[in-house]
Design goal:
The chain is of the alpha/beta class. The chain has 27 helices and 24 strands. The chain folds into six domains: about 120 residues, no CATH class; about 120 residues, HPT domain (Four Helix Bundle (Hemerythrin (Met), subunit A), Up-down Bundle), CATH 1.20.120.160; about 110 residues; about 160 residues, Heat Shock Protein 90 (2-Layer Sandwich), CATH 3.30.565; about 140 residues, Beta Barrel (OB fold (Dihydrolipoamide Acetyltransferase, E2P)), CATH 2.40.50.180; about 120 residues, Response regulator (Rossmann fold). The N and C termini lie far apart (about 125 Å).
């Protein structure tokens, strides 16, 4: 080809000089591909000679009057000698003929003696390689090892772990089957392979270095020749780049090389040998066509001009590129997330404390008003007493003591008491102002805390696009394994998701794609017969819906063969032969562990490890999996899960004395039992609401807690739960506390997975509460348990005896309650008999300990009222008083006091009396 081109160029210069400018332009146009071809063939000496001729012709183009017949003949002779050299580049005489002509040639830009000597060496170095001299390489197992060198620098190792996966993704993207392959993508792939090879050599990773080295050799052959690889070679290159990506991930995870690594290295060696021995025609897409250089956009700024902003503004992409990026170690980022969650929890607890302070200030205000009323009454009684009892007045009876500013000591003490009350009120008002200011600061701090939490959470957000190369690679591998054709379309690639959730979601998605190709899509022949395109289509869609991540994976295959699924389920004993199941129930049978429709084991299926693993992983993410299939049209899998692994929206409920946090996942609606009707049927309880009947479960049964017997007519909350696949149930709850967004904490590595209880959270009072995933818990408890509407029978929980201490003396009341609490009783207090009656009505105590003399209502009056009421008359009463006379004792016993204890008493005496009175009376047969 080169000799023909040079011969045409020589003939051009042998013609008559009619148009010098046209001659020069035509010559330069023909010389450009000649120089490029010579450089590709490593004919460096001949290439420099042609480049020298190009320089002379360019000069003649500027000075056409200098082109004389003698100079024209000299250029033609030089082209002839160069053509003779190319006929046999090993001929020394032909080499010397070119050099001699250059030495005597009187050209406008002549070669110097040093340049002629240099050209002599280059012409002599050129040689032809015979295919017989090429050696066919053989790949060995040690050539694909992934062992990292022991003496590698830790910083270099960290850079290696960060860079290798990214570079492997770039390499795969440049050679993907769906992209338009061109010279630019080949060069980018070559640069990526070269960079990976350099990193692998520095780390001593032989396997990756060998694969990328052979791949770079093949890409270099095509980039220098400006040609494209053919379909077979291109498919093999895509498979090899997939293997390189898997090996890069294996290095990061410190795993061994995949089984296909040695085979792929051998395939590269075979292709390299074939291309060198048979030429690029054996692997090119077009034997004659060359790749035109890519056009340069006209709107690019010149290199010698300063960078300017287009239209005075920078695009979003430019701003992102200009942002400085720092690498943060994973443990540091995890600690930041943990601290952000702890800060949110403490903020919630602080809010609770401020709420309590507000309630105490309101209580203090009420007590202050009560004190003012008492002081006013006391002052009135004192004045009346002085008026009604003249003997208390002074000797001078002519004037009223108040009229002459003569006061009794009682008036002075009362005045001081009023001043103290006023001071307390002033302190209370100051405290209220500070609490109000603290509330305002807390509100501002809550906003900053919320923004901080959002920003910290955003550090772990990554685009779905980061796993697209892995999903495309799985698709290509599955297609190669099954011989099917498919393309993967990703929608919402720029959706940002928590990296922790995305990493846990990657494996289920890859399994879904493999399952869709293996079980869903038909072979190209079957698709053609059914009127479908030979290439199947799998569509993966990501949507961020408020606090939920929704992923939809659909294919245009044959759909789920429900008849075959039912038959296999009967064979495996999963269902009865006469079981009546709907289509959705049959479709969900594929989620049972160990279920498989394959009779033979392949690389993709048949091992009984299938969709159940996907379902379990989605359940661990507190997600739901729905299946929709239509015969002949395809199958759609719908996945939904919370968008954050740190914060969780919950509904706090109380079961007995324990508080549980019900995750909002699957919780559709909260209603009151009176909004529907509770039906007791042979299949268990059903809740009828708005014309639909839902299976009704007791929350206590789901949590294995002792509970209540729910019946029609009781008033309690009812939660409607969506289990997926259109299945909904009703969960009966005794008490709903509030909706809260709380920090989510996993159980840890030392506790086994508890179905439906993924973790814990910390409440505002500092207590911990288990987070309950109701859909998962219901599915777990419903297996093997027919009726979950009735709580399990558990021995009644032992509660501490409740004692009520009634005394108007604060010190006596406090000391007595502390003693009884330390002994193991649950103690409440009252300031007098009237306060005690109010508390007894709210919560019945097991025993009352009361003083005899108290304001408003004495202990005698309290006992008489209790004995006069049927619901209180059996409560034992222990009276503690300093009155020791028989008259007081008899009066107390007549009033109904169970036992009489005089002061001073000892702790043993008191505790013995309490223990005796709490013991039940023996029944009389």
């Amino acid at each position: 080809m080169l000799t023909n081109e040079l011969q045409q160029l020589q003939d051009l210069w042998c013609q008559d000089l009619s148009d010098i400018d046209q001659l020069c332009n035509a010559s330069l146009q023909q010389m450009t591909p000649i120089v490029r071809a010579m450089d590709s063939l490593h004919l460096l000496g001949a290439g420099f000679v042609v480049k020298g001729l190009q320089n002379n012709i360019c000069w003649l183009q500027d000075f056409p009057d200098q082109l004389q017949p003698r100079l024209q003949l000299l250029i033609a002779n030089l082209l002839a000698e160069l053509n003779g050299y190319l006929k046999d580049i090993t001929d020394v005489k032909a080499q010397q003929a070119v050099l001699d002509l250059l030495e005597v040639a009187d050209l406008p830009a002549s070669a110097s003696e040093e340049q002629i000597s240099f050209l002599a060496g280059l012409l002599a170095l050129a040689s032809l390689k015979s295919p017989d001299l090429l050696v066919q390489e053989q790949a060995a197992s040690q050539d694909v090892e992934l062992q990292v060198a022991d003496d590698i620098d830790p910083q270099l190792l960290e850079m290696l772990f960060n860079e290798l996966p990214q570079l492997s993704e770039i390499l795969s993207e440049q050679l993907q089957s769906r992209s338009a392959l061109n010279s630019a993508s080949l060069r980018e792939a070559q640069r990526a392979a070269h960079t990976i090879k350099g990193l692998a050599n520095m780390a001593g990773i032989v396997g990756i270095a060998n694969l990328t080295h052979r791949l770079e050799d093949i890409l270099e052959l095509y980039t220098e020749a400006e040609q494209l690889p053919g379909t077979d070679l291109r498919n093999d290159l895509i498979a090899i780049t997939d293997t390189i990506a898997i090996m890069c991930e294996a290095v990061v995870l410190q795993q061994s090389a995949p089984d296909s690594a040695q085979e792929m290295l051998q395939r590269l060696m075979d292709w390299h040998y074939r291309l060198r021995s048979e030429g690029l025609d054996s692997g090119s897409l077009d034997n004659t066509a060359t790749v035109a250089p890519l056009p340069i956009p006209e709107d690019l700024p010149a290199f010698d001009q300063p960078e300017k902003e287009l239209n005075g503004k920078k695009s979003t992409e430019q701003k992102l590129l200009e942002q400085t990026t720092f690498r943060v170690a994973q443990p540091i980022l995890d600690n930041l997330l943990r601290l952000a969650g702890e800060g949110t929890t403490l903020n919630t607890q602080l809010d609770e404390e401020i709420t309590q302070l507000r309630s105490y200030t309101r209580l203090s205000r009420d007590r202050q008003r009560a004190l003012q009323r008492v002081l006013f009454e006391l002052e009135q009684q004192l004045n009346e007493q002085f008026t009604l009892q003249p003997e208390l007045q002074h000797e001078d009876d002519s004037f009223d003591p108040l009229e002459m500013d003569r006061y009794n000591e009682m008036h002075t003490s009362l005045s001081r008491l009023q001043e103290a009350a006023a001071d307390i009120q002033e302190v209370e008002q100051s405290m209220e102002r500070h609490i109000r200011r603290t509330s305002e600061l807390h509100l501002a701090q809550s906003g900053i805390q919320k923004e901080t939490l959002d920003r910290v959470l955003s550090t772990r957000l990554v685009e779905v696009k980061s796993i697209s190369s892995r999903l495309q690679r799985v698709l290509r591998q599955a297609c190669r394994s099954t011989g099917k054709q498919a393309e993967l379309l990703l929608e919402g690639e720029h959706t940002r998701i928590d990296s922790n959730i995305l990493n846990q979601l990657a494996d289920p998605l890859m399994h879904i794609i493999r399952n869709a190709i293996d079980h869903g899509l038909e072979s190209p022949q079957q698709r053609q017969q059914s009127g479908k395109p030979e290439q199947g289509q799998i569509r993966l869609r990501f949507i961020l819906d408020n606090d939920l991540i929704r992923v939809t994976c659909s294919d245009d295959g044959a759909g789920i063969n429900t008849g075959k699924v039912r038959q296999i389920a009967i064979q495996k004993g999963l269902i009865e032969a006469n079981a009546q199941l709907g289509q959705q129930e049959i479709e969900r049978l594929i989620l049972i562990p160990g279920f498989s429709t394959r009779n033979e084991i392949s690389q993709l299926s048949g091992r009984g490890i299938g969709m159940d693993v996907v379902h379990q992983q989605i359940m661990r993410l507190q997600g739901m999996l729905n299946i929709r299939s239509e015969t002949g049209t395809g199958t759609t899998l719908e996945l939904s899960m919370p968008s954050s692994s740190l914060m969780i929206k919950t509904l706090l409920v109380r079961v007995g004395k324990q508080i549980y946090a019900l995750a909002s996942h699957g919780l559709e609606q909260s209603i009151i039992s009176l909004d529907g009707q509770l039906l007791n049927t042979d299949q268990g309880l059903l809740f009828d609401y708005q014309g639909e009947q839902y299976p009704a479960y007791a929350l206590e049964s789901l949590l294995s807690e002792p509970g209540y017997q729910y019946e029609q007519g009781q008033v309690h909350p009812v939660l409607l739960i969506n289990l997926g696949q259109g299945e909904r149930v009703a969960v009966m709850v005794r008490e709903v506390i509030a909706h809260r967004e709380l920090a989510f904490k996993q159980m840890g590595d030392y506790l086994p997975d508890i179905p439906g209880i993924p973790g814990l959270t910390i409440l505002a009072n500092g207590d911990t509460a288990a987070v309950i995933d109701l859909p998962a818990r219901i599915r777990y408890k419903s297996i093997g348990q027919s009726n979950l509407s009735v709580p399990r029978e558990i021995a009644p929980e032992h509660e501490l005896p409740k004692l009520l201490v009634v005394d108007d003396s604060l010190s006596a009341r406090s000391s007595l309650s502390v003693l009884l609490r330390d002994t193991g009783y649950e103690v409440s207090t009252a300031i007098d008999g009237l306060d005690a009656m109010n508390q007894i009505r709210k919560q019945r105590p097991d025993m009352v300990l009361t003083d005899l003399e108290m304001p408003r209502m004495s202990g005698m009056e309290l006992t008489s009222m209790m004995r006069g009421r049927e619901e209180m008359q059996d409560i034992p009463v222990l009276m503690i008083t300093s009155r020791t006379t028989d008259r007081h004792r008899n009066e107390a016993l007549n009033a109904g006091v169970s036992s009489f204890l005089t002061k001073p008493w000892t702790e043993n005496m008191l505790l013995d009396q309490v223990s005796t009175l709490l013991q039940p009376e023996p029944s009389i047969a």
